[in-house]
Structures are given as C-alpha cells and as structure tokens.
Amino acid sequence: MSMKGTPDEPRFSVELLEGSAALRDVIDKHIRDQTLALKSAFLVADLGVIVRQQVRWRAEMDQIRPFYAVKSNSSPVVIEILAALGTGFVCSNKVNRKSKICLISSLSLKLDYSSSHSIFVSLLKLFLK
C-alpha cells in the first residue's frame, strides 16, 4: 500500500521483536533510520494487544461475535489482524465507506474472509428511514 504522491514508498511496516531485542534499541534504530531518510513521524504499537484481547473475548464470551468499528482505526494492519482473527466489521462513515468496502473485499481474497461479515451502518440508516 502506498501514500499519495509517493507511489514506491510503503505506507506501513511491521517489525517483530526477536527474543533478545530490547524495544528501546529498536525504537532508537528506527529514529536514526527515519532521520537519515528525512522522514518525520512514526508510530510504535504492540499489535499483540489486539490478539490478546481477541483471545480473552473468545474465552469469556465465545457465543458473541465481536464487530469492530472501522472508523475508530482504519489502519490496514489492524483490520487485517482482526479479519484473520474472525472479527466482524462495522463501517459507518459515508465518505470512506467505498474505500472500506474495497479494503475488506481485498482481505476476502487474501484471508478467505467474506465481506458478508461486515455491517454498513449508513446503508442501514437509509433503509430504516
């Protein structure tokens, strides 16, 4: 996936910490790399939290399927992890609905995930009026 104006530049990257790697060392290296490449902002996140919360949900409430509000964080990495874990999606933003449909549909091909596991709230509002 690419950012506007920079077609060859990746929009995100995920790095896994190896057993002995210290988080601080990885962040310091990334800051040096970003500075040398004249880039500015980056985000460090523990994506394992998403997996752990999903496992906890399944253990406590296995009969209730979680649905994730895409507008809260539409990061492709987050959506891909949640889709792989079997989470459903709620898309409610009219402006971005089309891109979210495309994103979730593209995940369908990659992860054998059906876009029927998505609720498009703004479409429901039209039918309920």
TrEMBL record:
Q: Name one GO cellular component term.
A: cytoplasm
Question: Which residues lie in coiled coils?
Answer: none
What does the UniProt keyword field contain? Polyamine biosynthesis
Give one GO biological process term.
putrescine biosynthetic process from arginine, via ornithine
Q: What is this protein called?
A: Orn/DAP/Arg decarboxylase 2 N-terminal domain-containing protein
| Pfam families associated with the record | Orn_Arg_deC_N (PF02784)
User: Does the UniProt entry include the keyword S-adenosyl-L-methionine?
Assistant: no
Q: Which part of the chain is the Orn/DAP/Arg decarboxylase 2 N-terminal domain? A: 48-94
Q: List, alphabetically, the InterPro entries matched.
A: De-COase2_N, De-COase2_pyr-phos_BS, Orn_de-COase, PLP-binding_barrel
Does this UniProt record's set of keywords contain Phosphoprotein?
no
**What are this entry's molecular-function GO terms?**
ornithine decarboxylase activator activity; ornithine decarboxylase activity
PROSITE patterns reported for this sequence: ODR_DC_2_1
